[in-house]
Amino acid sequence: xxxxxxxxxxxxxxxxxxxxxxxxxxxxxxxxxxxxxxxxxxxxxxxxxxxxxxxxxxxxxxxxxxxxxxxxxxxxxxxxxxxxxxxxxxxxxxxxxxxxxxxxxxxxxxxxxxxxxxxxxxxxxxxxxxxxxxxxxxxxxxxxxxxxxxxxxxxxxxxxxxxxxxxxxxxxxxxxxxxxxxxxxxxxxxxxxxxxxxxxxxxxxxxxxxxxxxxxxxxxxxxxxxxxxxxxxxxxxxxxxxxxxxxxxxxxxxxxxxxxxxxxxxxxxxxxxxxxxxxxxxxxxxxxxxxxxxxxxxxxxxxxxxxxxxxxxxxxxxxxxxxxxxxxxxxxxxxxxxxxxxxxxxxxxxxxxxxxxxxxxxxxxxxxxxxxxxxxxxxxxxxxxxxxxxxxxxxxxxxxxxxxxxxxxxxxxxxxxxxxxxxxxxxxxxxxxxxxxxxxxxxxxxxxxxxxxxxxxxxxxxxxxxxxxxxxxxxxxxxxxxxx
Length: 484
Fold this sequence. Notes:
It contains 22 helices and nine strands. With 484 residues, it is α/β, with parallel strands linked by helices. Strands 6-5-7-8-9 form a five-stranded parallel β-sheet, with helices on both faces. A four-stranded parallel β-sheet has the order 3-2-1-4. Helix 19 links the parallel strand 5 and strand 6.
């Protein structure tokens, strides 16, 4: 088994797994062999087999803390928060001072929607190991989600005292500062995201653009995260052009047609299919979400001239004809964000939460949802009607072309914090955005308006998970709109 461990440490997991399989076959009662085999199989992406190995190890040796923690972590990755928490609590019953079990239990509680419980658990871990920066970073996340921004900032800054190059803590501190409207330091800290794992630059090896007024320079501006982020920040191409540079905007392929004609962008090119940088004539590069920091944007200087996107005229005529076939207050609804996004926790209300809008006399709810979340249309209460634009709506390789056109004929868009909300704002359509108690940084705290989108109105939870009051307020406001 030692040889298998050595191979695993060198990353030769296939060979290590074969040796651990031999060890487990030779001594079926050796818990450590099943544990190590689980580690190898998990590294090879064989999660179900890894789970079986760890459960076998625990059947042989119930006090095997490492096996139980790994099993809990696997369950947590699958979204089984309660089951994961149960495994970590079993470890803590035997080993109440286990910092790994405490940190993992905190993760399970936070992902399961209990930031207060998570914060208490992380504090226990920090008390046992005061120099453990990751526990402090996690404590900062939980406190932010619980609404304790001062406590969160203190936790992040303490983590950075202990580990000055802790990229995740820098990034999360940046998000916290942006949420609080402290933009100058927030943009600097947010730029540390490039030193975290899983985020790759798309600068094609070009030097970074500093924002200086070097005339005739061509800046390759690369989109980096979600579709909503690209829709929100693409407006900054105009600010780049105002500095005397030519802006080439490289975006997700499905957004190229939507962004065609964007003011300030000399060219729109698709990620993955764009020509080499030398053929683009680019002299330097900048990530799209680094531009606010490079340009020195503050809360009073956000470019808020809308619309900055324009839908295709023929599609607008087609969808307006579809809408006008029936009278009523036309309300487009979007309810589900990307379930794989780190920002998804708690931000997406169920479609059924929109029911107070459906109860307004004469209101027509029209689904703008594509992909994940669309399945909720099939399980609505019998007395809640939501119209679907049909199978061909936004079909094909391009995103949001039909959505943008349909929005032009709507009286109102009501959306969760997801891409259609940004699209409606970019089109200067009336859009009301339903936000969780502590929302994404771009919406700030407490305001019911946002400098990013002049036609948007924000409806906020006052208690975590309480969508009922949010949508009651939305419906009351929509009734006033109906009367007007």
